Amino acid sequence: MTENTRIAGDEHDAEAERELSWRAKSVGLAALDMDDAELMHSWRSDPVAAHHIGIWPRSLTAVRERIERDIEDDDRDDFLICPSGSTPVGYVALTSQNMVDGTARVELMLAARHRGQGHGTAALDAVVDLAFGELPMYRLTAETHTDNTPALAVLAKAGFTQEGVSRAACLHRGRRHDLAVFSLLRPEWEELNRPRAWDA
Q1: Which of 123, 155, 169, 199 could form a disulfide with 160 if both were Cys (CB 3.0 to 4.6 A apart)?
Q2: Can you tell me whether residue 20 is helix, strand or coil?
Q3: Taking Cα atoms as reference points, which of 67, 3, 4 lies closest to residue 41?
Q4: What is the pLDDT of residues 40-65, one digit of tens each?
Q5: Residue 9 to residue 73: CA distance in whole angstroms
């Protein structure tokens, strides 16, 4: 999870108004599609994103193949973050969904040009409301490098609690990095004093 991704592909040839799958107060979530491969590739290729997410930059073809596989995966929902239906500014996903146990994992990647404007928190709130308000989730988890200060702040602001640290859990550029492990439970979400996505 990162808020530090460059917006190299911000001039993506996306239509001005995208069809939104889920709406919140300040952002909408549009389902990720194959046509978004170039945009995702530009974000994933940024070295800051690679560090904070712990990903290896892949070719555009590999990103397209990955998106195609993910679209067919019933255990995940991937979205582009669209403020007021405009050009996407980031990506948020609900992955590893287990409907029996009521668990899922949250991922977030926000373009650097759009950091500090509240889009990350709004998108995280929106996907959390989707998980608890429309899906039978009880526990959401998220992980990020312990030195990823912006992501740590966004998770805390969204009500997530840091459970601990997975020591040396990620290898990047020859170094081991610790991962901060966060969670949010349904009763904690119910106690959050904020409007829900559907109140927008």
Answers
A1: 155
A2: coil
A3: 67
A4: 777 676 766 666 666 666 777 887 88
A5: 26
